[in-house]
Amino acid sequence: MNKGKQEEGIVKQSSIFWPTLILVAWTFLVLVQVPIRRFRAAFAGRVTAADFACGESDRVPTDVALPNRLFMNLVEVPVLFYTVSIIGFVTGNVTPALLSLAWLYLGLRLLHSVIYLTYNHVVHRFVVFAASNGVVIAMLMLLGWALAG
């Protein structure tokens, strides 16, 4: 093998962390939107502190509630993605296929977020969300197959 050049089918194991770190960074960027939108709405008189006493009341406008819902969404299923990525790395099973699926998952989650925060079409959002979950399942199956073999 030439120095600096990898054999076909072999990837640097730590490369799995690029899509995971980007998703973590994106999650924090979404989290930052939660207080920004809440404070803007409060200063505009659209909400009060009491509207957030037990989560979000029905009085909280949709544009204020969406970043919080998206943030919760970004800390639910992605935990499985992070887990598969870490297990793949620890066991040395990061393959081109697993890495490609990780990048696909990231792309789908970013697309889901953009839909959520912009025009928020439920069917479009659901299709992308379901596809991203299918990608995580494929990653789990691929990793399980590698670990079993």
Automatic annotation (TrEMBL):
Primary location group: membrane
Subcellular location: Membrane
Keywords, comma-separated and alphabetical: Membrane, Transmembrane, Transmembrane helix
Transmembrane annotation, as ranges: 16-36, 79-106, 126-148
Pfam families: MAPEG
Top-level taxon of origin: Bacteria
Gene Ontology CC, one term: membrane
Name assigned to this protein: Membrane-associated protein in eicosanoid and glutathione metabolism (Mapeg)
Organism: Hydrogenophaga taeniospiralis CCUG 15921
Organism lineage string: Bacteria, Pseudomonadati, Pseudomonadota, Betaproteobacteria, Burkholderiales
